[in-house]
Design a protein that fits this description.
Layout: H1 42-46, E1 53-57, H2 61-73, E2 77-81, H3 84-93, E3 98-101, H4 110-118, E4 128-132, H5 139-145, E5 150-153, H6 158-167
Parallel strand pairs: 1-2, 1-3, 3-4, 4-5
Helix pairs in contact: 3-4
Amino acid sequence: SFTTYFKLPEKHAARDSQGDAEPSADAGDGAYSDGSSPVGSAANNFAKLRGMRVLLAEDNDINQLIAVELLSSVGVDVTTADNGLEAVKALENGEYDVVLMDLQMPEMDGLTATAKIRGNPAHRDLPIIAMTAHAMAGDREVSLKSGMDDHLTKPIDPDMLFEALLRWDRRPVH
């Protein structure tokens, strides 16, 4: 083991030359000293995700943990499925606002699961978003042609994930 010490920055709540707030050392919660969020004004919109029911089809435990933590942080209700077959079964037994679908999973991959989901008229308009490491040219088109509505690549950028959920939110406005 070892111990190390670091100096705090000289300017805790100063603004840079463009007038943007710098992170405050005293904030602790990721907020800036002026009370804004580091993800910008879009963070206020992320509160609109509260109560959204998301089915996350992901076979990797670490990826599941990260996604559940991110989604829960903005009030999203998350149910996990370890593969596409579990995702299809979960949709038979519950109602969800959005499905986040990995492409490569055991038992049933995300493309096959999407085809099965789209085969059920009750889920014809259910937003399905690919959440995958497939980031090569053409991978997005494969996802969209399979019946998915959007394609996010891993590692997941939280802002992009939240913005995609807002874009595909079909819940009635309260």
